[in-house]
Write a structure and sequence with these properties.
Distance between the termini: 46 Å
Keywords: Acyltransferase, Transferase
Order of helices and strands: HHHEEEEEEEEEEHEEEEEEEEE
Helix content: 10-25%
GO molecular function, one term: acyltransferase activity
Pfam families: Hexapep, Mac
Enzyme class: transferase
Family: Belongs to the transferase hexapeptide repeat family.
Number of helices: 4
């Protein structure tokens, strides 16, 4: 499917107000069908290989537990050594970039759609998106949510249940709703190999 020539897709990726197109609907339905099938596969290697094939790009050592869900897949880029626990959802109407060595706890959600605040516009079903960027060595605790337009720097830890409404720099632990810095997270531990 040539979604890159679809004007609704371009508007969606650019963060402009857009309406769903027949091509976007078909892509999302096709991906949804594949995800439902792949999440039922018990063999880890087979399931993960098939999931990987639905994403824009994925590095080495990709492992997701079922259920792993997303809207399109073509808007998700994941670096090396990624782990997602059960029930992770990525609404990738906008671009989602995840760095190397990232781990997501169960029921983590990354949401790029931005629904209009004006109810008359919202009733039209038009929406915008804002990208999410996750740095390297990020750990997001269970049931945490990352909202549209957020960038997390390298070595950020997001506490379980946090709602991340704005961006954070490198080397911090963030917790709460809305998330705030709890403390710095400078690497200090050494592991003997």
């Amino acid at each position: 499917m040539e979604i890159d020539k679809d004007s609704a897709y371009q508007q969606m990726i650019n963060g402009e107000l857009y309406m769903e197109s027949p091509k976007l609907l078909k892509l999302r339905n096709d991906v949804r069908t594949s995800i439902m099938q792949y999440n039922q596969i018990a063999d880890n290697d087979e399931r993960n290989a098939k999931m990987k094939g639905l994403l824009r790009s994925v590095g080495d050592r990709f492992f997701v537990e079922p259920t792993f869900e997303f809207s399109y897949g073509v808007n998700i880029t994941i670096g090396n050594h990624f782990y997602a626990n059960h029930g992770v959802t990525i609404c990738d109407e906008g671009v989602v970039k995840i760095g190397n060595d990232c781990k997501f706890g169960p029921k983590v959600g990354l949401y790029t759609p931005v629904h209009p605040l004006d109810p008359t516009v919202r009733r039209t079903e038009a929406e915008r998106t804002a990208p999410i960027t996750i740095g390297n060595d990020v750990w997001i605790g269970g049931s945490a949510m990352v909202l549209p337009g957020v960038t997390l720097g390298n070595n950020v830890v997001v506490g379980a249940g946090a709602v991340v409404t704005h961006s954070f720099p490198d080397n911090v632990v963030v917790v709460g709703n809305p998330a705030r810095v709890l403390k710095e997270n400078k690497p200090t531990e050494k592991v003997d190999k």
